[in-house]
Amino acid sequence: MTVHTSWRRRAALSTVALACCASALAGLPAGASAAPSPTGSTAAAATFTDDFNGAAGSAVDGSKWQIETGDNVNNHERQYYTSGNNNAALDGQGNLVITARKENPGNYQCWYGRCEYTSARLNTSGKFTQTYGHVEARMKVPRGQGMWPAFWILGADIGNVGWPQSGEIDVMENVGFEPGTVHGTLHGPGYSGSGGIGAGYTLPGGEAFSDKFHTFAVDWSPNKVTWSVDGNVYQTRTPADLGGKQWVFDKPFFLILNLAVGGYWPGDPDGSTSFPQQLVVDYVHVTTNN
Ligand SMILES: [Ca+2]
Known about the structure:
Keywords: Hydrolase, Signal. With 290 residues, this protein is mainly beta. Helix content is 6%, strand content 36%. It starts with 6 loop residues before the first helix and ends with a strand. It binds calcium ion. Calcium ion is lined by residues 51-52, 94-95, 282-283.
């Protein structure tokens, strides 16, 4: 993913700096934090948990997520991101469902003219940030040409320093023409966009990620990020991979979930793409490192 042109404005508006982590920690069961593990190290503590339990049709928890609206010319995405529960709603069975539809009931205008699709993009800017830890989501992705689901984190100083100086860690991206592959990527100054540093993970046996739920995670520590799918580590990056460029991942980041439709990387939907399409998210969990 790359960011919206309007991020500077959005970040400026995000002045509701909640005491997120303190309240999240306060909700932990007794003994859940700092309990010694069998190895003698300190157990990880939950810092952000959304299991998406709630009534069918309800919007996401506004204390955890803010909903971004508008289009995204930077990637030439085709969708308009809507507010409320129009394209992001709980299903009543413990999942968040982000739905991409081929419609435009609000007569939304996009960079290319009248928008052809609606979808949703959520982030935790101003509500939850963290430096280092384990960041994980369990999701079932959509399938079809032009689909571009993503779970990623972005440097919280983006409003001040801009992108890509902010840094971006893509925990998981999938583009529709590669149904069996996901990508994990670092973006920063001198290595952004198509120059991002990353790798792909492909399911064995011709399986598609849309066939069932999978877990996507990064383990992030000083000078190291490791990506995994269903617990299978497929990539580790350190400053040694940057060829002398700046490592910008030692500061707070916030979370983003979105389902883009079309764009430079996935290409646009075609006659083979059915709508609606869904990104189904069972949970997003963030913990501290052990
Ligand atoms: Ca759930």
